[in-house]
Amino acid sequence: MPGLALLIQLLSQPGDPVVIQGPYYGSFAKIITMNGREVLENPLKESAQGYQFDFEHLEACFEQRKPPLLLLCNPHNPTGRCWTRSELTQLMTLCSRHGVTVISDEIWADLTLPGETFTSVLHLDEAWHDQMISATSASKSFGLSSLRISNFLIPNVRTRNAFIERLNAHGLDVFNALSMTAATAAYQQGEAWLDDLQGYLADNRRWFEQALACAAPWCKMTPAEGTYLAWLDCRALGLDDHALQQALIHQSKIAASMGISFGEQGKGFIRINLGCPRQYLEQAIAGLARLKP
């Protein structure tokens, strides 16, 4: 997140709008507002096939507000969408036309489901490379979040050099040797482990979706192509977000990530982590089964 904050400082001015697409990771909104910029929401559209970009609304945002930046999440947290090459091409066409730079958070890129394909913005036409930045990390794939290390792929030489200067100015030019060693080992020696992890996560998701449909059919699981997150629609319970949280804590014994923390589009939803031993998911299913609409 510090790197994303530095890029927001570098590529926009105080008061500028920065586009994010709800439901969004709450820290995105935090680093935008804490740096004196304005959150400009381009909500994703719900569909039976999963969430979709709203390009018509996005173009209106570009024309009316003229934001310099769009913060993309791919694969998307919390919904699990992996944006297709066609979707990303349409997105970059709009961004190019309106002079908007895309910062693509691709931290979940390794964790696609079997048969799904991840497409980075950097896989698209090189003519757009000056307007795109990709952020990656070993943290989600290999459980290294506490080591605080990430990678920023910045094709534009001027932007890359300015980013390095800003790292130096904030004293972030000295990197933790343990973090670098761990990330290097993960990338060079972790392929077999990651393959096993992907299979385990896919089995967990398959089991959870089937169990949920039987035990709590009122709770709808959003279709996903990646991540180890389950985005669950609990609106059938008819509870506001505070009441939903209390029901989850006291009746279900579940401490879920509440959807409202992902913006207005998250109201009535919860996020569950599927990257855990199956026994914890069994407890979650039993807890959700105790709630009735």
Automatic annotation (TrEMBL):
Its cofactor is pyridoxal 5'-phosphate. The keyword Lyase applies. Gene3D superfamilies: Aspartate Aminotransferase, domain 1 (3.90.1150.10), Type I PLP-dependent aspartate aminotransferase-like (Major domain) (3.40.640.10). SUPFAM superfamilies: PLP-dependent transferases (SSF53383). Keywords: Lyase, Pyridoxal phosphate. Residues 5-286 form the Aminotransferase class I/classII large domain. Signal peptide: none annotated. It is an enzyme of class 4 (lyase). InterPro entries: Aminotransferase_I/II_large, Class-II_PLP-Dep_Aminotrans, PyrdxlP-dep_Trfase, PyrdxlP-dep_Trfase_major, PyrdxlP-dep_Trfase_small. It holds the Pfam family Aminotran_1_2. One of its GO terms (molecular function) is pyridoxal phosphate binding. Its EC number is 4.4.1.13. PANTHER family: PROTEIN MALY. Belongs to the class-II pyridoxal-phosphate-dependent aminotransferase family. MalY/PatB cystathionine beta-lyase subfamily. This is cysteine-S-conjugate beta-lyase. It comes from Serratia quinivorans.
